[in-house]
Amino acid sequence: MKFDKTCQLLIIGDAAVGKTSIISRYVNGTFKEEYLGTVGLDYSTKEEIIDDKSIQIKIWDTAGQERFKSLTQNYFRNAEGVILTFDVTSTESFGNLKYWISSFKENMEKKNIFIPVIIIGNKIDLVDSREINKEDAEKFSKEKNYKYFETSAKTGEGVDEAIKELVNQVLKQNGQKDDQKETRNSVQIKENNEGSGGKKKGCC
Ligand code: G3D
Ligand code: MG
User: Is the C-beta atom of 16 inside 6 A of ligand 1?
Assistant: First the structure.
């Protein structure tokens, strides 16, 4: 099947924060059912129709390497958007967001390119065990200039909204890149036309 556009996302964060569950919820609409059989798969895909265009969303998941903090540069290759995840019942996973931010910044192939990022605080259904409140997470995300979302992969709350926002940011970013390319091309064509006119413009 041919898609109008593709969008490659990756998800990172500490082990057990719910990364695989979030993807499973988004892609299959399920929790704790089929994904156990898919451990080791590199990515999952889902099609969305946005503004009458078919978008293939590819989400790369870790196969557990994050336990050893050993994600390779390969994992980050081609990522167009990043989902940074922590568990609202784990202060440690929230504290480690700094590590994950520096890890993708170091590993991105084109280091000075702006990649849309969102932060997800997952497991909000576990109200009584919550350790990180919404305000603190929002404050941290704002400081980093990333949008913050709260989700429960278990109930499904917030999952679609968060991922769709990131997809929109990526599409917007890619649209801007296309616009820049077009502008660059048109500048080039203009320059070439001027050149073929025979007159060389110069300031001195
Ligand atoms: P990971 O991919 O980040 O390592 P997983 O995390 O998706 O494997 O989830 C780790 C554990 O957290 C799993 O429980 C999973 O069911 C649970 N979990 C994930 N998301 C949520 C959530 O939103 N709410 C609740 N209550 N639990 C969640 P097990 O028991 O299999 O270790
Ligand atoms: Mg996992």
Answer: yes
In angstroms, rounded to a whole number, what is the distance separating the alpha carbons of residues 119 and 68?
A: 21
* pTM tops 0.90: no
- 120-145 average pLDDT score: 98
> Ligand 1 pocket: which of 10, 14, 21 to mutate (most atoms <8 Å of CB)?
21
Is the shortest distance between the CB of 17 and ligand 1 below 6 Å? yes
Residue nearest to atom 10 of ligand 1 (CA): 16
Taken in order of first residue, the domains within the chain and their CATH numbers are 5-193 (3.40.50.300)
Counting every residue written for the chain, the total comes to 204
For ligand 1, whether the C-beta of 18 sits within 6 Å is yes
C-alpha to C-alpha distance for 83 and 193, rounded to whole angstroms: 45
> Quick check: 195 pLDDT over 50?
no
Distance 149 CA to ligand 1 centre (A): 17
Torsion of CA 20, 116, 98, 35, to 10 degrees: 0
Among the listed residues 90, 71, 95, the one whose alpha carbon sits nearest the alpha carbon of residue 12: 71
Neighbours of ion ligand 2 (CB under 5 A): 19-20
Which tokens is 124 given?
A: 């909000």
Instruction: Give DSSP secondary structure letters for 20-52.
Output: HHHHHHHHHS-SSSSGGGGTT--EEEEEEEETT
